[in-house]
Amino acid sequence: MEPLPPDQGSAVSRNPAEWFAEEVHQHEPSLKAYLRGSFPSVRDVDDLVHDSYIRLLRQKAAAPVQSAKAFLFTVARHLALDRLRSARRSPVHSVSDISEINVHDERANVTEAVSKNEKIRLLLDAIDSLPSRCRQVVVLRKLKLRSQKDVAAELGISEKGVEIQLSRGIIKCRKFFQKQGIHTFFDDEF
Hints:
The protein has helices at 6-13, 16-24, 28-38, 45-62, 68-89, 110-128, 132-143, 148-155, 159-179. The protein has 2 domains: 6-89; 102-179, Winged helix-like DNA-binding domain superfamily/Winged helix DNA-binding domain (Arc Repressor Mutant, subunit A, Orthogonal Bundle), CATH 1.10.10. The model is unreliable at 1-12 (pLDDT under 50). 15% of the residues are buried. Helix content is 67%, strand content 0%.
């Protein structure tokens, strides 16, 4: 029987937690620095690192990983690029704090203003939950008030495709509201 190379032999004798601590977790500070430096517009680096860990652990369960560090950095780079591509395709930007939205409301009734802000937050959550293409169509048609023809041309799909995606988006938004216990949304319905 041929002896295992030093790093593989030690990996066999260690439990997964020890392997993770010694071979993977030690790279977290440099991985975060790399991601922040290379992809400054990616918002949540911690999520990318976590997702990279998951992919690494899945790969290790399927087959040996020669270099945990190289695999980790490669996966993190691919995930960051995927997020950037996704953000570029989607015209909707998530808002983590409703106070970031500049809504001017001159009504004196605070209850109405709070209710409207809550509805806006729910609407953003509903739209954000839609599949990418559906979300793009809903935002362009309903929020940006673009014509069906313009949306079709911009997205490279047929006008019928825009109509179908818009219909699906509205249905999914209504179902989202119903799951929240809301059966009527705005006076003129979404």
